[in-house]
Amino acid sequence: MEDLYPLFDIAKAEYFFNSDCSLEAEHIFFSIPTLSIISEGVRQMQNFGIIEAKMPKVNKTLFLLTPDYMDEIRLNPPEKYISHLIESRKKMKDVLERSRLGKSTTKKIVFLLISLGLVSSSEKILRNHHLNKLSQAKIHKIQETFNRKCSYIYKYISKEIGPAAFNVLEKCFENTKPHLSPYSKDISLNSEGKFELQSALKTNISHSQKDFQQLFLKDLNEILAAEILAVKKSLGNEHESVLVKNLEKIGL
Predict the structure, then answer these.
(1) Do residues 55 and 92 lie in contact, with contact meaning Cβ atoms separated by under 8 Å?
(2) pTM for this predicted structure
(3) Average pLDDT per run of 10 along the chain, which is 252 residues long?
(4) Domain extents for the chain?
(5) What is the signed CA dihedral for 111, 117, 123, 129, rounded to 10 degrees?
(6) Do 55 and 107 form a contact (C-beta atoms < 8 A)?
(7) What's the rounded Cα separation, in Å, for the pair 235 and 247?
(8) How many angstroms separate the CA atoms of 39 and 115, rounded?
(9) What region does 167 belong to: left with phi over 0, alpha with psi -120 to 50, or beta?
């Protein structure tokens, strides 16, 4: 990680983030905490020309953003101080005038907050931020919890009826498909009783309007309710009651 920090001072460099690039868990030796690297990399920057070039104009109003990954970011006291100054949507010149840290330090912290996606001077970004309540990370988290529930249902019914469990759930899903929205047309059931979403579907959901996002969540609830009903039909009311209580512990 230490070797990465000097790269932040390079004025011209090409880079990209490939969200579709993934490895099997067995091939991952260690992971890089991206947010921590960005934070520390900016804190150690010496090339102030890069910071100046990215500064909002003095008459621009700064907006605080609240991304889903906000809880993973650890700001130090001076950074929190500047974020509090920005909180009332002050113009860049107001923040520079009111800050007790000096213009250079204040600009560096503003640059850090912008780099982390916590601050923006663009009203378009602010509108999109309020519109897109479901980020990629949020969708991934919802899918993981949803699949933990589905996996539990599969294991539960498998203990009772054996290999026939998959056929029961597969038929249940096929019967549910016609009632799902177009956003869920790519969902498929795998051999572990979990559901897979295409990466394109995730992207569409995270950038779609709120109504479509709600449709997608409704689809997941529809699938879950259908599977619980399948357990009830196959095993009876008592098993359904036990299953529901255990699913509540998993949460969503």
Answers:
(1) yes
(2) 0.52
(3) 89 70 74 87 93 90 81 88 86 93 95 91 60 61 85 91 90 88 79 73 55 76 90 89 83 55
(4) 2-131, 136-250
(5) -170
(6) yes
(7) 16
(8) 8
(9) alpha
